[in-house]
Design a protein that fits this description.
Number of domains: 3
Order of helices and strands: EHHEEHHHHHHHHHHHHH
Radius of gyration: 34 Å
Structural class: mainly alpha
Number of helices: 15
Largest sheet: 3 strands, antiparallel
Shape: rod-shaped
Number of strands: 3
């Protein structure tokens, strides 16, 4: 030998903090080969073995398998390349673990049945592409043949959920409930009807300052009356009903009359679906948006006010 210090397997174990059994295992695997043998035939190791064992322990702690570690030690692959690949794999594992934690947290909060747990797990673990297909299928059904409407690109964007890579428990729970709504034929039909109504109620270019989207027009006109506690059947509600009906007639490009009011109240009754409010609330949770104000109070007020003044 060249005069380097040599260590017995016991001394090497003490220097590295590993057990003799572990050092022998790595030596037998060829990961830390002996540098020499004693006259009695016992394995002896040099200082390079200490460094190799330290690296082996570090890489094992990071989760690398022994064949990969051996390739690194034998310079068959570079350590940076292995570290990069392993970091990517760990990122996937971390994402999966966070998703599982979110599912379990949601299940605990909801006191879910085994059937609900199975559904939550199935929907939550969908890949990004699978989630997007589910979303696209729903939105394509709702807006089929209606994409030429000038308001629809913004509407579709406002209805599109984007579950983050590392969702919180409430986002997973919201996604599961929203995915369930996607597959509800009744809700699909309701949303399709609303989209069709929006397409048929085209505002002229010189529309008034009120929003062209009917729901927002109602919110703008009626919110103050709701907050003030104005009785929708009272005389004080008349100017609001008149303004709302006039605005809707302007959107339609027709004179304001009883037929317009009847059409308007039918539209608002269709829109006053609690599933619509729930959809928007869940969407806000998933996308990290501020919680939306419910349209239900203003829609209910407007419907009652119109019904009180519109013959059936």
């Amino acid at each position: 030998m060249n005069g380097d210090t040599l260590y017995s397997i016991g001394e090497l174990a003490r220097r590295t903090g590993l057990t003799v059994k572990t050092v022998r295992f790595y030596s037998d695997a060829g990961i830390v080969p002996p540098a020499d043998r004693s006259p009695a035939g016992y394995r002896l190791y040099d200082t390079d073995a200490v460094a190799r064992l330290d690296l082996v322990r570090t890489l094992r702690d990071l989760g690398l398998d022994l064949p990969t570690i051996r390739k690194v030690l034998d310079h068959e692959v570079s350590l940076p390349a292995v570290a990069s690949a392993h970091a990517d794999a760990l990122e996937v594992q971390i994402r999966v673990l966070r998703l599982r934690r979110a599912i379990l947290t949601a299940v605990a909060k909801r006191s879910s049945t085994p059937e609900e747990l199975e559904l939550m797990h199935k929907l939550a673990k969908l890949s990004e592409d699978e989630r997007q297909r589910l979303i696209d299928d729903f939105l394509d059904t709702v807006f089929e043949g209606l994409h030429d409407h000038p308001a629809f690109p913004a509407v579709i964007r406002s209805l599109t959920p984007e579950l983050p890579d590392n969702p919180e428990a409430e986002q997973v729970e919201a996604w599961v409930e929203l995915a369930d709504l996607f597959q509800d034929p009744g809700f699909r039909s309701t949303m399709r009807g609303m989209a069709g109504d929006l397409a048929s109620d085209r505002a002229p270019d010189d529309a008034t300052g009120l929003p062209r989207i009917l729901a927002e027009a109602v919110r703008a006109q009626v919110t103050t009356a709701v907050e003030a506690g104005t009785d929708p059947t009272s005389p004080q509600a008349e100017p609001i009903v008149t303004a709302l009906s006039a605005h809707y007639a302007h959107i339609l490009g027709v004179p304001d009359n009883a037929e317009v009011r009847q059409r308007l109240v039918t539209r608002l009754e269709t829109m006053d679906d609690p599933r619509r409010d729930r959809y928007l609330a869940l969407l806000a949770v998933i996308n990290g948006w501020p919680a939306p104000e419910s349209l239900a109070p203003v829609l209910a007020w407007a419907v009652q006010a119109l019904r009180a003044r519109t013959p059936r």
